[in-house]
Every structure is written in C-alpha cells, then in structure tokens.
Write a structure and sequence with these properties.
The structure holds two protein chains of two kinds. Chain A is mostly helical. Chain A contains five helices and no strands. In chain A, α1 packs antiparallel against α2 and α3 crosses α5. The longest helix of chain A is centred in the C-terminal third of the chain and has 27 residues. Chain A is flat. In chain B, α2 crosses α3. A two-stranded antiparallel ribbon of chain B has the order 1-2. Chain B is globular, with a radius of gyration of 10 Å. The longest helix of chain B has 10 residues. Chain B is mostly helical. Chain B has five helices and two strands. Classes of the chains: A mainly alpha, B mainly alpha. At the A-B interface, α3 of A face α3 of B.
Chain lengths: ~120, ~60
C-alpha cells in the first residue's frame, strides 16, 4: 500500500495532479502503515521474534555507525571548506545534514528513553 | 555455535514451521539456527532443549564454532 502511495505521488507529479497524487500517497501511507501496525496484533501467526529484534538492533547500530562516521568524517571539513570558500554547501546538502543530525539526536533520545525503562 | 537441530527435528518428523510453532518463534528463526546463522537466546535454547527432552549442550556445541 505504501508503494502504491509513493507511485501515486510520483504519477501525480508527472501528470501535474499534485493534490490527487498527495491524496493517493496519504491514503496508501496511512492504510499501509495501519496494516503494518495492526497485522501483528490480529494475526495468529508469529511475524517477528528474537531473531528479528536482533536484526533490528544490528541494523540500527549499523545505521548509527554510518551516520556517526559520515557526521564526524565528512561534515565538519565540509563546513570549514565552505567557510573558506573552497566548496559551496548547497541548501539541499545543508538540509540533508540537518535531517541526519536530527535523526541522530532522535535516536539518542529514544535510546535514553528505552535505557531508562530497561 | 554449531548445532544438530535439523537432525533432531528430522528424527521427530517435524517441519521447521511445526517446531517453530512449538517453541513460539518464526520458521525463519529455526531455519537460521539450523544454518548456524543465528545463535538463539538462552530462553529459546532452553525451550528447544525442553522440547527435545535433553540438555542445551546436547543440541548446541560452542566448541565447534
């Protein structure tokens, strides 16, 4: 459903029907998300277990590791080079850095939250 | 950690899904354990040992890693 929503959004952009595309996207995203949320609760069959939790844990660690490595290894020099006039940080690049930083902080917040409850 | 889960399961005439249902995990987890791609939690190892009425070390052998 989420894939259908994304497809609807893209098609809407291509055929210049932005509102219709957005509506299709929202329907797909919310219905798909609702199914993903509800399926484990109404299904008798086990959809996830300890192995999946470990995979999530490792994937989360890998994602955070990559984000941290890029954040430490690339972002500060980019800002320095931008300040020195050697490169120009575009708005999109700046936005991407802000989003990645926000996600990293959100992860840290969630980690702290879970840690307090554990 | 090596194990002989697939042999024990086959001896009992069980499918991976049936064993998974018996110990309350997904079939993919049983498959991953049998292929030595996942080491189960202590809780699941106890569940498996209890199901086959043996000790954990009868199924799992860390020295064969």
């Amino acid at each position: 459903m989420i894939g259908v929503g994304i497809l609807g959004l893209l098609v809407g952009m291509v055929i210049d029907r932005y509102l219709a595309g957005t509506v299709v996207y929202l329907l797909g995203a919310w219905i798909g998300g609702g199914i993903a949320f509800a399926a484990p609760r109404v299904s008798d069959s086990r959809l996830q277990d300890e192995r999946d939790y470990e995979l999530h844990n490792r994937a989360s660690g890998l994602a955070m590791g990559i984000t941290m490595a890029l954040g430490i290894g690339i972002v500060p020099p980019l800002y320095v080079l931008d300040a020195g006039g050697y490169v120009e940080l575009t708005g999109a690049a700046g936005g991407g850095i802000l989003v990645a930083s926000a996600l990293f902080l959100l992860y840290g917040f969630c980690f702290g939250l879970v840690q307090r409850g554990a | 950690m090596r194990n002989d889960l697939s042999t024990r399961r086959a001896d009992e005439g069980l499918s991976q899904g049936e064993l998974a249902d018996a110990v309350d995990v997904t079939r993919q987890t049983i498959n991953a354990i049998e292929r030595d791609r996942y080491d189960p939690s202590l809780e699941l190892a106890f569940e498996l040992a209890a199901y086959f009425d043996c000790h954990i070390e009868d199924i799992f052998d860390p020295s064969l890693d």
